[in-house]
Amino acid sequence: MYVCGATVQGLPHIGHVRSGLNYDVLRRWLARSGYDVTLVRNVTDIDDKILRKAQAAGRPWWEWAATHERAFTAAYDALGCLPPSVEPRATGHITQMVELIERLIERGHAYPAGGDVYFAVRTLPDYGSLSGQRVDDVHQGEGDGGHKRDALDFTLWKAAKPGEPSWPTPWGNGRPGWHLECSAMATAYLGPEFDIHGGGMDLVFPHHENERAQSHAAGDGFARYWLHNAWVTMGGEKMSKSLGNTLAIENLLERVRPAELRYYLVGPHYRSAIEYSDAALDEAVAAYRRIESFVHRVRERHGLPEVAAELPGAFTAALDDDLGTPLALGTVHTLVREGNTALDGGDATGALRAASAVRATTEVLGLDPLAAPAAWRRSRATPPGRRWAPWWSPCWSAARPRAPDVTSPPPTGSATSCSPPGSPSRTAPAAPPGLSKTLRTRRTHGRQFQAPRCDPQGRHQEGHGRRFRRSAPARAEGQGSTPPARCEPGHPKARRRPARPCRPGPAQHQRFPCAGGGPSR
User: Fold this and answer.
1) 3-state class of 112 per DSSP?
2) What does the alpha-carbon distance between residue 62 and residue 260 come to, in Å, rounded to a whole number?
3) Among 77, 148, 115, which residue's Cα sits nearest to residue 379?
4) Which run of H or E residues covers position 229?
5) Cβ-based burial of 334 (10 A; exposed 0-12, middle 13-18, buried ≥19)
């Protein structure tokens, strides 16, 4: 199975990940049915949109693509998608693309012109059969161009332009066209003919139509079956960055759990559009929690229910009929109602049997409430605009999307912005009260391991010690803070020697300021 993956031009939204979730359910169902499934999901990491956005942001195109590829991977992981068998990048398969172009030129279906290479659409008699269009009515969306023989022709290879990445070919330096990439990667991993090709409904034309055309023209059977999932819409329009009507995965996961968002996106039939609304999302959350509540009640009262070996016939029939997830979920809720009745009536056997069936059915949908916690972990990618930092960094809490869990509120007092790594060191604060004593006061050969010097909101805390100083905002306002009494200059155990500056590095070592074991500096 080959699935058209993301063009990594920006952060993922729910319209993007719906495709990945739909084909994840299909893959799970085929595997449960006894098939050995090889899933290839590509990454388009070279494209006009990527180049434009990277240039506008003043960032290298490869760094822009890699950053957003990680964000997509994190979104798939967070929503419980099984990793693909292989996830090829377009830029890693230039050789296969050049070989495919050479085959098309030899067969008379493609021609070079002005450094570009074009596919001659009229040389393929059944062009348009996938999308149901007549040849004379199609429009490639590329413009006429100065070197095309026919406006219907589409680009296989683009001549190099100043400032753009390029690769050497027999027709000059350049980069691949979008449609060529998927044909080359699909056949490289799945052979000249494979079972299923999937993607979004918006890819039917021109992308999938052109994939099919160039692959058939090269002599490959290509995909036997084509599947296209519908859009997620807002206000009746497809969710799209260009329209500004997107809902980022990161933002939605602040509101609902990953399992609940997955339920919302896989519940409707994959060919039915989802009109997003808060009310519909809330309904999906409530429905999933009913399933989850039942399974947990059974576990608490009668022990862990095992995953049933066999699936209910109604569930199997629903998924065998064009992956009918709405009817399949209806079967799950029927089992939940029956199980709750048995549970309330004291029928332990019936409750366990129902819970086992619920686990088996939800496992196929990727919604098992008792699945390993790793399946629902939060995103591990660092969104663009946020600096990555390890947990021990002084700016760790500022780099994290959310505040770390602490058992006590952050210290009060004036605060300044957290300094980035490598900046001149300032007096370090005591660790937030929520951090463990081991983290706060671990001594090694006369030196101390410093806790992060940012509070959970990413603000620099005021330090302690004999040379206690006010922050810049506090000095400007004529205000100050009172240092801990134990470290005041008059304290008998305060050291007389001046404080040594912090050494750069993740540990931020420094001499202990108080001989009696006062707060760290």
Assistant:
1) strand
2) 34
3) 77
4) strand 222-229
5) middle
Instruction: Please state at what angle helix 325-344 crosses helix 278-302, rounded to 10 degrees.
Output: 40
**Spatial contact of 265 and 367, defined as CB atoms under 8 Å apart:** no
Distance, in Å, from the CA atom of 354 to the CA atom of 340, rounded to the nearest integer, reads 9
Give the mean pLDDT of 473-486: 46
Mean pLDDT of the chain: 79
Q: What is the rounded distance in angstroms from the CA atom of residue 488 to the CA atom of residue 470? A: 14
Residue range 102-145, pLDDT digits in tens: 999 999 999 999 999 999 999 999 999 999 999 988 888 886 66
In the block, which residue shows the tokens 């999932």? Answer: 229
335 near 358, Cβ under 8 Å?
yes
Query: Which is more confidently placed, 421 or 363?
Result: 363
**Contact criterion met (CB below 8 Å) for 119 and 210:** yes
CA neighbor of 498 nearest in space, from 463, 521, 466, 520? 466
Tokens of 181: 């990439």
For residue 425, what are the CA distances in angstroms to 22, 453, 456?
A: 51, 11, 20
Strands (E), 147-209: 154-159, 174-176, 193-200
| Strand partners for 512 | none
Mean pLDDT of 285-290: 97
Q: What is the C-alpha to C-alpha distance for residues 52 and 372, in angstroms, rounded to an integer?
A: 41
416 confidence band (pLDDT: 50, 70, 90): very low
